[in-house]
Amino acid sequence: MIDFSELTRGEMQQALVDLGVPSFHGTQIFRWLHKRGVSDPAAMTDLSRELRAKLAESITVTTPKLVKKEISSDGTIKFLFELADGQRIESVYIPDTPAQTFCVSTQVGCAMKCAFCLTGKMGLLRNLTAGEIAGQVRVLAHETHLADQSFNVVLMGMGEPLHNYDAVMKSLQMLADEEGLAVHPRRVTLSTVGVVPAMAKLAEEELMPNLAISLHATTEEQRDRLVPINRKYDIEELIEACRQMPLRRRGKITFEYVMLAGENDSPEDAKRLVKLLRGLKAKVNLLPLNEAKGIEFRRPSDDVVNRFAKILADADVTVSVRKSRGRDIRAACGQLATDR
Ligand code: SAH
Questions:
Q1: What fold, for 2-60?
Q2: d(CA 142, CA 136)
Q3: pLDDT in tens, 200-244
Q4: What pLDDT score was predicted for residue 53?
Q5: What would the pLDDT profile of 251-268 be if each residue is shown by its tens digit?
Q6: 57 CB contacts (<8 Å, ≥6 apart)?
Q7: Measuring from each residue's beta carbon to the nearest atom of ligand 1, which residues come in under 6 Å?
Q8: pTM
Q9: Which whole number is the average pLDDT over 88-104?
Q10: Residue whose CA lies nearest to ligand 1 atom number 20
Q11: What are the residue boundaries of the structural domains of the chain, listed by start?
Q12: Residue to substitute in 256, 286, 305 for testing ligand 1 pocket (most ligand atoms within 8 angstroms of CB)
């Protein structure tokens, strides 16, 4: 049995040819699965009865199983999925920011162990497959009735996308397909702690998403503690890799900066950040910490956040403060973690 949820449209066509079926049916099946959200071949009514019977015998179509949906008071919805092997992941729908946004996971857990992130506490259980990554978007788009509208996808759920490079890139190819959800890479943002060699690879990709860098610190000593991968790829190397990234016209790299009280929120930190980003097409997104049990840091006051933001703005750095969404259902940044 071949799992069609793991195939690009081209691969579906090839798989059908291998089964002795004309390749154009691949486009029909791809459309059913991705555009219409139908994964049972028996329900693909524009295929002949004979073909449907043949498919029932030779292919499977795996879809992440939705086990729980929690709705926040602000409209954010957190989806809990169970995968074929029983592992669990979370995805989030964030409405009107101003666009409709789906935040999806790329791994079960995460190996990066950032000091303030709950997902990191889980450790890495396994990588998601391309079909599981695209599958989250597929289910969310149909659950929210947005499959025919434009929406954004952010790879900011559980996991480090550049630590699961091939599956992530393949999922972007499936999502971008015009016969499916047609999510142009321009509408996709990949957030990374800065796996520098993978960034160099990404720079060569045809389907290059927007990039967000989880910077969170302005000195090597500080980042070594907060984002342990810094001991391998330090700030200097990371910023240099950012300089090498090709950008779209008017495109910018987003730098995410989680704000931790008394740790990285001083005016000196802000000034160092301005310096670090000098000459880069950058915008800064400040993420006041979402506190959680088991996380030793505290969220700074709004005044401290605003003082920090003002120093950046006064130095002509584009800055925004991320409004925390879905905190009441533990759907906010760094709060995604499942029990097993
Ligand atoms: N591994 C990737 C993708 C996850 S994106 C990355 O780190 O970029 C999730 C974002 O939320 C990251 O910027 C992460 O550092 C941030 N984050 C993690 N824990 C957080 C918390 N408790 N409060 C606010 N932001 C947090």
A1: DNA polymerase; domain 1 (1.10.150)
A2: 10
A3: 999 999 999 999 999 999 999 999 999 999 999 999 999 999 999
A4: 94
A5: 999 999 999 999 999 999
A6: none
A7: 112, 114, 116-117, 156, 160, 191-193, 214, 256, 258, 287, 289-290, 295, 333-334
A8: 0.96
A9: 94
A10: 334
A11: 2-60, 65-329
A12: 256
